[in-house]
């Protein structure tokens, strides 16, 4: 694991750790930041306004550190080498996202932590989100956002809200905080982490409190209890010595852990670790700023010049979630022919998307500038101006022309039936605007308030009057308008060719095909049909998920045109998904001269497990140790004695099952 040493955080991964102080005999796996006891949970917490999704199943996990805006993804070894998308959802809005490639080992990858990836990596949302209680952090490998099959952790609304308090007379340390009563009070734990505790009678780097009354720690040094009352909690630690109590009280590291599900082996899933006093924002150099430090959003603008006036229209970018909201826009016409430059302009409110600047000098060139203004007083970079010469003077020149296909009807009774209306200008470099109603798009050379910039053929889904205006680079205008009604005007696309499958898994397959000229999208179809319909795609490839293991399917794909008309099906491709691999874990691995013992669990009884040595680089080797051992009652115990045992400690090992399950590398301890 990549987490470096820091206050309240353990460096590296610990394996074969002793049982939790209230949970003797529970199996543990790698610990995130020295705190995360890996585990599953039995019921999902659904916060108001958060869409339902699956809590990860062991050994996969999504672990969230909201105070540091840090996420670690554990497991997902069946996706090694694949790119995953992680998204932070607040209700139905994505407030943070990143992509990372799954690495071999216990940690798939991390976000906003040294050695990991930044928020915004591989996505367009370049901001480090301020992760809050109630947010949902999901991981997906498909293309459908917020799919019900996504793994996710809902950030728990429970955290320490004050520094610990020590009563020296009774050697009692208390930690208090907030607790949302909708959380499961049996799936919580409060910890204080201080590496200096290792050298005390506590004999470990943290102390822990769970509900159930004041109970002595198994290793000694203190007793503890965690009491939840309404929307608050109180953790109490009574230490055997005042010296140890002072160390615990002065080292910081107060945190509260809660999880959504837990299985019979005490694996905790959907884990939130709230760390008191930790700072949010970028966790390493080069990562994007948090929302409070992001500048106002820019965008694009267009200018239409007419004599002494100019009409400026703009489309701002979407503001970063949680950033200071846009309070208005500044629109300027700047005369750079004089020093200092002269300028004229207006300001609008946040709803403004168009402004007219009057009082300009005819024949003089101006540079036009649009900026968004944020409520915190900041402003954006200038918007990109979309007219030639950065909005300079348009003078009389070539005549403008525009043609509509198909041609329009003169009245609603003679409306032309079509699915799309295409507007074609007689020259390049200008702009086409249109309205879809009774108002003309332009009067003289002034655009209507409802005018829209034409960027693609206009779809006709109901009877409508369309009005178009083309402004050529010289500022001259051509208009065309008329009536249309829904119909079909384009032929259906031809069938795609070359449909092929690859990367077949137990629940997914990748399909590719040759792109069809003129197609605007594709629809993949499966036989038998899937429970969740396959989403349409615009690419000539698609990863189909939600398949059943060890099942035969037949796939085809159809192309569609801009009107949504589907063409004939492609060639069919048969695909049989692979069987689901079993899961195996190593609980203990110990070596001493003449005695080597490895024990653990397996999900499929009757399968066999084999020990392999790890290579120096941490990958699985080819050299085996011992012979295959059968999994019985979902457990195995391999013991090699005398000459059968390795002559020296093997160091790190892997375990492979005959059912395809793999776990490791696992460090063998002495003794």
Automatic annotation (TrEMBL):
The keyword Membrane applies. Coiled coil: none annotated. Pfam families: fn3. PROSITE patterns: FN3 (PS50853). Keywords: Carbohydrate metabolism, Glycosidase, Hydrolase, Membrane, Polysaccharide degradation, Repeat, Transmembrane, Transmembrane helix. The keyword Transmembrane applies. Residues 1-27 are annotated as: Disordered. Residues 296-393, 495-580 form the Fibronectin type-III domain. InterPro entries: FN3_dom (IPR003961), FN3_sf (IPR036116), Ig-like_fold (IPR013783), Striated_Muscle_Regulatory (IPR050964). The chain crosses the membrane at residues 31-58. It comes from the Bacteria. This is Fibronectin type III domain-containing protein. The lineage of its organism: Bacteria, Bacillati, Actinomycetota, Actinomycetes, Pseudonocardiales.
């Amino acid at each position: 694991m990549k987490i470096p040493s820091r206050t309240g955080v353990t460096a590296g991964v610990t394996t074969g750790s002793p049982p939790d102080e209230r949970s003797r005999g529970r199996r543990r796996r790698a610990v995130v930041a020295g705190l995360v006891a890996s585990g599953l949970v039995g019921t999902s917490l659904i916060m108001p306004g958060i869409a339902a999704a699956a809590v990860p199943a062991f050994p996969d996990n999504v672990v969230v550190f909201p105070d540091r805006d840090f996420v670690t993804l554990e497991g997902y070894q069946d996706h090694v080498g694949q790119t995953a998308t992680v998204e932070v959802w607040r209700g139905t809005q994505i407030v943070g996202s990143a992509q990372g490639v799954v690495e071999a080992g216990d940690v798939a990858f991390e976000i906003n932590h040294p050695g990991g990836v930044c928020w915004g990596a591989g996505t367009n949302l370049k901001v480090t989100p301020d992760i809050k209680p109630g947010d949902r952090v999901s991981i997906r490998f498909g293309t459908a956002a917020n799919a019900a099959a996504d793994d996710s952790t809902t950030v728990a609304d429970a955290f320490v809200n004050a520094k610990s308090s020590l009563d020296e007379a009774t050697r009692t340390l208390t930690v208090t905080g907030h607790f949302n009563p909708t959380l499961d009070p049996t799936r919580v734990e409060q910890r204080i982490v201080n590496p200096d505790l290792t050298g005390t009678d506590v004999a470990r780097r943290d102390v822990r409190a769970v509900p159930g009354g004041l109970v002595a720690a198994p290793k000694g040094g203190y007793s503890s209890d965690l009491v939840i009352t309404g929307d608050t909690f109180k953790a109490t630690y009574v230490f055997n010595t005042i010296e140890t109590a002072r160390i615990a009280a002065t080292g910081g590291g107060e945190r509260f852990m809660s999880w959504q599900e837990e299985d019979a082996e005490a694996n905790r899933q959907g884990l939130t670790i709230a760390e008191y006093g930790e700072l949010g924002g970028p966790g390493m150099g080069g990562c994007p700023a948090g929302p409070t430090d992001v500048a106002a959003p820019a965008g694009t603008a267009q200018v239409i010049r007419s004599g002494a006036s100019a009409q400026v229209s703009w489309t701002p970018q979407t503001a970063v979630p949680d950033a200071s909201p846009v309070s208005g826009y500044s629109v300027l016409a700047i005369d750079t022919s004089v020093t200092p430059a002269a300028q004229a302009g207006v300001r609008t409110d946040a709803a403004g998307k168009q402004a007219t600047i009057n009082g300009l000098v005819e024949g003089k060139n101006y540079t036009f500038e649009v900026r968004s203004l944020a409520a915190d007083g900041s402003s954006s970079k200038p918007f990109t101006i979309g007219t030639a010469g950065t909005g300079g003077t348009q003078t009389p020149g070539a005549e403008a022309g525009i043609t509509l296909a198909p041609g329009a009807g003169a009245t609603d009774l003679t409306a032309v039936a079509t699915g799309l209306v295409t507007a074609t200008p007689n020259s390049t470099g200008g702009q086409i605007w249109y309205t879809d109603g009774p108002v003309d798009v332009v009067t003289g050379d002034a655009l209507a308030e409802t005018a829209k910039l034409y960027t693609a053929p206009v779809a006709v889904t109901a009877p409508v009057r369309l009005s178009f205006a083309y402004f050529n680079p010289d500022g001259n205008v051509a208009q065309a308008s008329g009536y249309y009604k829904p119909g079909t005007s384009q032929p259906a696309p031809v069938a795609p060719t070359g449909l092929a499958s690859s990367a077949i898994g137990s629940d997914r397959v990748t399909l590719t095909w040759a792109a069809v000229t003129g197609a605007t999208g594709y629809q993949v179809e499966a036989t038998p049909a899937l429970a969740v319909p396959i989403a349409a795609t615009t690419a000539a490839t698609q990863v189909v998920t939600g398949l059943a293991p060890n099942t035969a399917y037949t796939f085809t794909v159809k192309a569609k045109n801009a009107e949504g008309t589907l063409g004939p099906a492609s060639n069919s491709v048969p695909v049989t998904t692979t069987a689901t691999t079993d899961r195996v874990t190593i609980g203990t691995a110990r070596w001493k001269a003449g005695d080597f013992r490895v024990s653990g669990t397996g999900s499929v009884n009757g399968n066999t497990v084999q020990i392999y040595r790890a290579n120096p680089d941490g990958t699985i080797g080819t050299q085996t140790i011992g012979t295959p051992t059968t999994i019985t009652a979902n457990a195995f115990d391999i013991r090699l004695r005398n000459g059968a045992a390795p002559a020296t400690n093997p160091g790190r090992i892997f375990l492979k099952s005959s059912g395809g399950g793999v776990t490791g590398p696992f460090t063998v301890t002495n003794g």
